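Mods, move this if it's the wrong board.
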Amino acid sequence: MNTIIDTLDSLDKQLIVWLNGNGDPYWDTFFWVYSGRFIWIPVGLAFVFYFFQKGGWLRGLLTLLTIVALIALCDRISSGFFKPTFERLRPARNPDLEPLLTIVNGYRGSRFGFVSSHAANSFGFATFMALLVRRRLLTVSLMLWAVVNCYSRIYLGVHYPGDILCGALLGTSLAFAMYAVHRAMVRMVENRTVLRIAGHDGQWVGSQVSLGESVGSNPYRGVPQVLTLGVLFATWVVIMILPLCGTFWWLK
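Not the wrong board. Structure tokens:
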């Protein structure tokens, strides 16, 4: 068992040296900007609008709260459990590896790095949205965003590829679990809404149901083209335009 772990650890160290940045000022700045917190804002705002406009205020609120809970779980489990339990030093804090790596702006992160919170959060969000919306182009865009976001951590030298892979698996697993919770909550609230509307005389007033077209339906599927394009545009702003603008501003 120890031999397998040692082999994987050795492979991880070889990969981080190969995949880490090469000190190019342009790409250093690009991935520094891309790895920052502001990278979430355009995608987040686009989806908040999307949830409430298409799903109605109650379903939109349930979806938003589920995503907040998902990100909180990804962050707390990765940072609060895995990192202090395994105590694996980040590459940039490993004295044997640090001389071989490019350190951008002196950034080394906290002491431990297994698993990657960035990977867990990114893939958790992307997977949940893929399950919820089920539109191929949107799924590909979000997955690409998550992959680039994760690679930025390798480029900066603060995570091994193994940290990224395990973080992505953690986020994906939690996304499936929270999607099941979300579906259960929506059905429960919808059923209560139906019973309340039906009343004692058993009369159905379908126009008053605010959670969707029918019990168990998913209004996020088959979305209007204009909304799909709007979310896609915001996603690609995050993937390319925002980091490029930040890079040019930084290099001035």
